[in-house]
Amino acid sequence: MNTKVWLAEFLGTAALIFVGAGAGAIGQGGLVGVALAHGLVLVGLAYAYGSVSGTHINPAVTLAITLSGKLKWPQALRYWAAQMLGGAFGAALLYIVLSGASTGLGATLPAGGVTSIQAVVIEAVLTFLLATVVLRTAVQKDSTPFAGVAIGVTLAALILMGGPLTGASLNPARTFGPALFTGNLASLWIYIAGPFLGAAAAAWSQRYLK
């Protein structure tokens, strides 16, 4: 994994958190605004950095691609490092421009009444769908030039469903950055376990449905 790939993942993840979580922190567009912010910025980043790193910008997506045999584990570890640092950097920028963490920095947390197990299941199912779209449009041999659009639209749709329940992170780096700067790491395990379970299931289904 060369420096360009690492930098693309770092910058892409930071941008996703700055724009996506930032939209949640500002709160002007409601749930639709947050969904569109995540989906549209992902479309742009997919075409900006796709030829450099594949624009995973999500540890769960990297796991799915690795389990599907398209990436080696040492490379995956470097992707994860870039993504988690990018998530922290994006949240740090939000902390600066929003004058602290009083807005919540777009942190993702289970809603009242949603248990930890329910939250894990929600994150797993939604990440399964996201990772499936990534694998079947951008990674397999007959990938489509419209993969970036498909992935971004899918992410926006998934946030519309899961946002009121768990925040629909589907991305450990997306949760990690805001959690770090708001000092609320207690629920972070949900947003690692759920997305990783969903990603593993997507990789299995991709192998089975080839």
General description of the model:
The structure is a single chain. The chain has helices spanning 3-26, 30-53, 59-67, 73-97, 116-139, 147-166, 172-182, 190-208. With 210 residues, the chain is mostly helical. The longest helix has 25 residues, at 73-97. The chain is globular. It starts with a helix and ends with a helix. The mean pLDDT is 96.
- N-to-C CA distance: 27 Å
How much helix is in the residues? Answer: over 70%
Order of helices and strands: HHHHHHHH
Going by helix content, strand content and strand pairing, the class is mainly alpha
Q: What is the mean pLDDT?
A: 96
Number of strands: 0
Low-confidence stretches: none
Write a compact overview of the structure shown:
Helix content is 74%, strand content 0%. It has 210 residues and is mainly α.
Which terms summarize this structure?
74% helix, 210 residues, mainly alpha, 8 helices
Helices and strands, with pairings:
Elements: H1 3-26, H2 30-53, H3 59-67, H4 73-97, H5 116-139, H6 147-166, H7 172-182, H8 190-208
